[in-house]
Amino acid sequence: MDFGLDDEQTMIVQTIRRFTDRDLRAWAADADRAGAAPEKLAATAGEMGFFLDAVPADAGGLLEGAYSHTTRALRGFELGRGCAAMAALLEANVEPSLAVAKWGDDAAKKAVFAALEGGGLATTWRDARGSLSIDGDRVTGKIGPAPALARASFVLVIADGLVTILPVGGAKALDPAPTSWRACAWGTMQVDGLSGFTLARGGAAPAVSEEILSWWKTSLAARAAGVAAAAMEHADKYGRERVQFGQPIGKFESLIRLRDDAETGSAAARLMALHAAWAIDHGRSATAAHDAASRARAFAGDVVAKATIDAVQILGGYGFVNDYPVEKLMRDARGFDAVVGDERLDRALAIKATIGAEA
Amino acid sequence: MDIFDGNPMLQGVRQMLGAFAKQSIRPIAPKHDREESMPWDLMKQAQGFGLTQTAVIDGRKALTGQEEETDVKKPSSNARISCIGSEELAWGCAGICLALGGSGLAASPVARMGTEEQKAVFRAALKGPDDKGHIKVAAMALSEPSTGSDISGLSTAARQDGDHWVINGHKQWITNGASASIYVVWAQTDPAAGRAGVRGFLVTRGTPGLVPGRKETKLGIRASETAQVHFEDCRVHKDMMLGIGSSEHAGGLADTKKMLDSTRPVVGAQGVGIARAAFEYLLDRVRSAELRGTPMASHQHLAFELAEMEMEIQASRMLVHRAAWMADHHQDNVRFASMAKAHAARTAQLVTTRAMTLLGDEALESPVDKWYRDAKIYDIFEGTGQIQRRIIAKNLLGVNPT
């Protein structure tokens, strides 16, 4: 057990924190209003190693050796403190990159890594309700809404019995842009018998799905914890300045309680995400790692929902207007429940399946 | 409790406004939410059946077809009618409901404390179209940049100068603040008197020194206009001060606070309407959709969530109607009014948040997103959830906890 960070992780956290405090927070409100990330995001974040961090070095990327999900979770928390929408864009390439490197054939690697190296985006979508129709390697139905899909070159689709990377063509941006993660280029795509690069099929698909989902859920949990932390940073600052009934409102016990619970929740969600990342990095079974990631994500989703609603509450009328940052955070909290699927339902169905049919 | 035994007048209001909400409000709600615009045409249409901007002063005959009870000692149905109607309108769209009723915030103190002359001034100010061709609306200006929950700390000041009061100050979060044709502004006339010195004044648009300010961009209730209003040496005749010539009403802040006891159940009812909207949307979805080849309705995971939501919604509505019934029967309802408002606000947030989670990515393109954003204000305006709990706690313990 070691809760400390190594030198490299410390440096990364400090760097990302600076990036968040100086850039992401400065850009977040305008990006939200515009429904698009600023042009400079790609260049600035690209210089910092985003987008290609999970692409192997021999394929033109920056990854040498094993990918560290722990470092990614640390980074995700800091990005969440900045802007959930831009964080979704910055993290979008990771799952497709790692999945193609691990299960893709040469053609898949060549096509996907070339697109990413050229500045392209890839994203991931899970068919949570089982609504796609799968015929061998071919996919029919509606893909999305998924973050980044409106700007992506490839989408990693996780469906029942198939994990595949599909080329994106004719994706439509959601119009109007959803109010959550507005700058993340939400898109949908209708496909009819489309095939791409199959990563796993049939009986092999569940294990591959589980592994990819454990990466994704861990990152989402870390980012959600970061959004919750940011909400309470704003609430704390406001509570110290705003005077009502003759005292700073931050002194009222009921508001201390709201903030305190949110900070406990955010810290716990961050630790759960780090624990799931540790399980992945240390080669724990895919099932155990996924279980940790799933619980982290469900818990972090609850935490960020309550923390952001309570931050708006603490800021009161100011919290409700767009001049202050917390109403955006309350909208952004929803994004964490709008991807991957309903964690608790999935677990209930999985547990049901393990209990004998005689009952 | 005549909501249980099918009081025909209350049922009639529910049916009429429910149909109006479904046919006229729902179809235009997304547009006004997106554009953050007032539903002027609908507001005009609504006047046709009694939802006028002066309804609070004129009585509700147009809406109910019945003469209003004028004997103040006898029970009335006003609070219950308002609650039932508001629930239906907010079910349609909370922002539009507030746009339809926004002038009522200003009309209430005029109805309660105004002289006949002041009522006439108020009515006249709302006659005919404004310079944009819209129906005219009124605004109540109470909150200030540094005075939200604690309304006793108002800094807007009124100084007497001959036959006039000269008002200076800034108001914030004012419903209809940019568009109103008449304002009821609250200002401190005597700092030494504290709360007792705070009085309301009628100020018509165009009065020199009355400067409607910037419109706010908000999380929700975006069809209802919220703006700043500035008063810069604004001179108002002394006859336009509320409470003059009345022995019963001092016209001060205490009367305003008393008024909140009757409006809180109505605000709670709107919270119930939002919760019901999200609940019904999810219910329809669970009834009709499949989940991995099985009916959604066959899953306890979803079905019990609906059961939970229904319990909370019904409980909120009972509290709302209890508080309204007490108001109609002239009973002290302060604790119940606060409980109704706080509980309904919590229910609206709980139901919309859970519905968003359960709908997953479908929620992004569904109306539940709007209801989620609309619900939050119900825990903030007309006394935050904390203020309601403070009132309830003080009622229970006799002290103001901090």
Chart the SSEs and their pairings.
The complex is a heterodimer of chains A (359) and B (402).
Chain A: H1 7-34, H2 40-47, H3 69-82, H4 84-91, H5 94-103, H6 106-117, E1 121-126, E2 133-135, E3 138-146, E4 152-159, E5 162-167, E6 172-173, E7 187-194, E8 197-201, H7 205-241, E9 243-244, E10 247-248, H8 253-281, H9 286-320, H10 326-333, H11 343-354
Parallel strand pairs in A: 1-4
Antiparallel strand pairs in A: 2-3, 3-7, 4-5, 5-8, 6-7, 9-10
Chain B: H1 8-25, H2 29-35, H3 40-47, H4 55-58, H5 61-64, H6 78-92, H7 94-113, H8 116-125, E1 138-141, E2 157-161, E3 164-175, E4 182-188, E5 198-204, E6 210-215, E7 226-237, H9 253-288, E8 290-291, E9 294-295, H10 300-328, H11 334-359, H12 368-375, H13 385-397
Parallel strand pairs in B: 1-4
Antiparallel strand pairs in B: 2-3, 3-7, 4-5, 6-7, 8-9
Helix pairs in contact in B: 1-6, 6-7, 6-9, 6-10, 7-9, 9-10, 9-11, 9-12, 10-11, 11-12, 11-13
Commentary on this structure:
The complex is a heterodimer of chains A (359) and B (402). With 359 residues, chain A is an alpha+beta fold. Chain A contains eleven helices and ten strands. In chain A, β2 and β3 form a beta hairpin. In chain A, α3 runs antiparallel to α8 and α7 packs antiparallel against α8. The model of chain A has no long low-confidence stretch (mean pLDDT 96). With 402 residues, chain B is of the alpha+beta class. Among the domains of chain B are: 95 residues, Orthogonal Bundle (Butyryl-Coa Dehydrogenase, subunit A, domain 1); 145 residues, Butyryl-CoA Dehydrogenase, subunit A, domain 3 (Up-down Bundle), CATH 1.20.140.10. Chain B is built from 13 helices and nine strands. Chain B is globular, with a radius of gyration of 21 Å. The model of chain B has no long low-confidence stretch (mean pLDDT 91). Chains A and B meet through β3, β9, α8, α9 and α10 of A and β8, α11, α12 and α13 of B.
